[in-house]
Amino acid sequence: MKTKKGAAISIATMVSPVTLWMAFFIAIPLLYVAVMSFCGTDENYNVVFRLTLENYRRLLDPSYLQIYMQSILIAFLTTAFCILLGYPFAFLIARTKSRKKALLYMLVIIPFWTNSLIRIYGWRTFLSASGMLNTLLMKLNLIDTQIDFLYNIGTTVFGMVYCLFPFMILPLYTAIEKLDINLLEASSDLGARGASTFFHIILPLTASGIFSGSIMVFIPALGYFFVADILGGGNSDVIGNLIERQFQSGNNWPLGAALSMILIGITLLLVKLYQKCGGDMESLGV
Amino acid sequence: MVRTQKRKLKKGLGVGYCALIYLFLFLPIAVIITNSFNATTSKPYMTWKGFTFDWYIKLFDNSALLDSFGNTILIAVCSTVLATCIGTLAAVGMYRYRFRGKGVIDALLYIPVVIPEIVLGIALLTLFAKTSIPRGILSLVLAHTTFSIPFVVFNIRARLTGYDNSVEEASMDLGAGKVETFFRITVPILAPAIGGGALLAFTLSIDDVIISYFTNGQTKTFPLKVMESIKSGVSPDVNALSTLILAGTTLLVILTQSNLFKRRK
Amino acid sequence: MEKTKIVEIRNVNKLYDENHVVKDLSLDVYAGEFLTLLGSSGCGKTTTLRMIAGFEQPTDGLILVEGENVADKEPYERNVNTVFQSYALFPHMTVFDNIAYGLKMKRVKKKEIHDRVMEMLELVQLGGFEKRYPSQLSGGQKQRVAIARALINNPKVLLLDEPLGALDLKLRKQMQLELKRLQKKLNITFIYVTHDQEEALSMSDRIAVMHGGVLEQVAVPLEIYESPASKFVATFIGETNLFEGRVVKIEGNSVSVMVESGMVTALGEGFSEGELVSISVRPERMNYSVTPVEGFTIEAKVREQVYVGSVIKAIVELGNGNEVKLERLAGQALPMDGTVYLYWGENDAKLLRTPDNEFFQAVENIQMC
Asked: Residues C108, C89: contact at Cβ < 8 Å?
């Protein structure tokens, strides 16, 4: 068959572009960020190479700790709502016998071809004090004065759920579609009512979808600073906001790097947890 | 029959629930599209002042906005082409051959998918700063290619299962060299998967916010221009452009994936 | 044997949109019997089974289990259990948990579940397998787990949907015997669905033959074979020779029929002159003579004969090119390349009505000489 040398050349040709690219644009920058997190800055805000733990010490400051907690809470709530709202939806779409099934699936994805910023802005318009929701509620005489829907953790969670919804739906859909309907019939045949069939059969067999979806929602939610900005108005900062600030106005890249290392740490932890629970990496590729 | 009535009720609830979710998904889009026809003229452009097509026309006078859109398209095309080339070679190569280090490459590919975009964004910023790569179109193309490659690879890999490479062997048996075989046989057969990967890369690029935010220098892409406008109030020509983009992408996908809309047997 | 009716199907119709899958089906199943629904794909047998189980609802008509109308009962409310064609074992549960599932749903005590599951495992000869997962089992073993899982609930009726289809021949024969043995031992009513007529003939107390959504005949295997009630049953079960023709003379219950290749006689009642009929003669009942026989005028040339162990299978060709199959005991070979006259005894042929929809085709088949 192929000569060993010939195969080696083929492998090299096909795989080295990606290896080099990823090494240069992923591995090296991240390594540099790791190193930078131990560096300091001088008066001109330039990075200075004297290794120090100063950045990490600053990150233990209570004000920062509060934001970590808040960020994790927001990410957690986002994930929870994505699961609660998304699972029934994914289930209904995946198991529909309608001929329009592919269309229904597409309809979930189409909104996400519009710029996510402007859609979040659309929500802000809708939910603002003078926006459509308030106008509608007042016209229906359900409220007397405008309600301030915006600028709190709730709205931020709402916005995150909106942005990250498809990342939960897609893996759930795949897992649910694979479910053999015979198993559900067998369960019913053996005496299980709807709820029992759900807890004993459906849930365990689609758990992988829930895990993949959770990873794909929780981790980005920690970093989506623009949602927190636009809908949360500074009252619901996430770790992403902290990082953004250090690289923009704060001009303290090493500190930003240290914060990023914390995010990477949390990410690694969750991925390891995911793998421990039997999650497989391929289903994260979406 | 009580049972069929119960079924109908359940079905009704199911349909109702899905409708609500779809409403949730499309509501801001409806807001955007509606506001693109808003005859308002003053910031923050929120109150409804009547119906007009004006903004669709004024859009073409807004050179800054159009420039940003042009940038976005240019970057998307370049990064898609690059990512698709690199990614296809990688996906096929990794599928076909066994070699040491596959795990490492896999890990490198998973990183951009799993880590928060902001981390990737600042990491790339740092790289560009250190290596003095000019921040602008070039840095954006490089950045977009970087996060697109893994998606292209995974997309193609997923569709490679069941690929029988005896067609390639037949090709070489008949005299075609490896490179020729790749372009004459492998690529055409994998065209749908490659197309799917490319489409994904394109979509990711035109909508990218976070990574572009850090790696753009002074260049504005459309999403970044939107971000800028949000602070002062988004004028409806931005809505108009967004609506046009949505229409365009929908059309594109319908044309390329039209088999999705055929009746499923 | 008791003659209590355990399942009663009364004038059941099932339509999927325009597709009329089960047509006015009426059938009674008796307690303790092994009844098979037999027919080719699409004849409605599986749909009927699913309606008894509760996975489908009749479009109209009534299904009674133990005298009760089950129309409003969900599958989990019926005292009926199913063995699925694909086994449908829960992949994430052990063999033990799979079998215990039904009992768990009934909130049976843990100790009792344990005892009963172990007992059941012995019954299906899978002792020692309780901790295995379905993915670790062979086809035959999965089969037995599926049966155990259903039987442990002591259903009044066990429904089996082509359970042996995926097994190889030897295993299938083995399982057929085991299932029959199990059924007799437990005295549970089995309703079995298959398209394999040999399987049906060997296992069943009674067979219900279905075709195009219609019940063609329900009877004990012998009767199905010897006295098929319709052309379909005659041709579907075993091999037969089918002659199509028109009644020309009736004397008592002796009917003379003109078929394409000549004149034949058979016994039948209730036929009228000029009626289009079919005559079914099994190869082993077909006889020949070297001289003409009264009442029969079919000539044939012997084309080939094959020794198949204990019998000789012969094929003779009629004047019009059609072939007729004969089966003789070894030692009774036909004269090769000779002309023979075909005939049969009174009780060796079955006279069948030609269904309305084949009327015009039958007309074309007849050429009056």
From this structure: no
C-alpha distances (whole Å) from A205 to each of A200, B145, C91 are: 9, 36, 8
DSSP-derived letter for residue A284 is: G
Tell me which chains share at least 3 CB pairs under 8 Å with chain B: A, C
* Beta bridge pairs of residue C243: C279
Domain ranges of chain B: 63-261
Phi (first) and psi of residue A140, to 5 degrees: -85, 5
Q: How far off is chain B from C69, nearest CA to CA, in Å?
A: 11
A62-284 fold = MetI-like fold (1.10.3720)
Q: For B216-255, how does the pLDDT look when each residue is reduced to its tens digit (9 = 90+)?
A: 888 889 988 888 888 777 888 888 888 888 888 888 777 7
Domain boundaries, chain A: 62-284
Confidence of residue B261 (pLDDT cuts 50, 70, 90): very low
Query: Domain B63-261 carries which CATH code?
Result: 1.10.3720.10
**Yes or no, beta carbons of B1 and C73 under 8 Å apart:** no
Instruction: Identify whether the C-beta of residue A191 lies closer than 8 Å to the C-beta of residue C76.
Output: yes
What chain C holds in terms of domains, given with CATH numbers, is 5-231 (3.40.50.300), 240-365 (2.40.50.140)
Both structure tokens of C62: 């009534």
Residue type, B218: Q
- Which residue, chain included where needed, has tokens 């041709």? C235
Residue B237 to chain A, least CA–CA distance (Å): 12
Which of B1, B3, B5 to mutate to probe the C interface, most C CBs <10 Å? B3
pLDDT value at residue C288:
87
Cα separation, A230 vs A127, whole angstroms: 12
Structure tokens of C150?
């259903």
User: CB atoms < 10 A from the CB of C86, how many?
Assistant: 16
- Give the number of other CB atoms < 10 A from CB of residue C164: 24
A162 CB neighbours in chain B (<8 A) are: 24-25, 28
List subunits contacting chain C, requiring 3 or more Cβ pairs under 8 Å: A, B
What are the beta bridge partners of residue C263? C258
Helices A239-247/B117-131 angle, 10° precision: 20
| Residues comprising chain C, all counted | 369
> Above 50 in pLDDT, residue A26?
yes
| CA–CA gap between residue C155 and residue C302 (Å, rounded) | 55
Residue C20's SS3 state is: strand
Check: CB of residue C58 under 8 Å from CB of residue A154. no
Cα gap C148→C153, rounded to integer Å: 9
Query: Would you say A172 and A87 are in contact if contact means Cβ atoms under 8 Å apart?
Result: yes
Apex C103 CA angle, C102 and C105, nearest 5:
65
**ipTM associated with this complex:** 0.86
Greatest Cα pair distance, chain B, in angstroms, is: 76
Average pLDDT over residues C263-277: 87
Q: How many CA atoms lie within 13 A of B51 on its CB side?
A: 2
Q: Whole-angstrom Cα distance, residue A237 to residue A227? A: 9
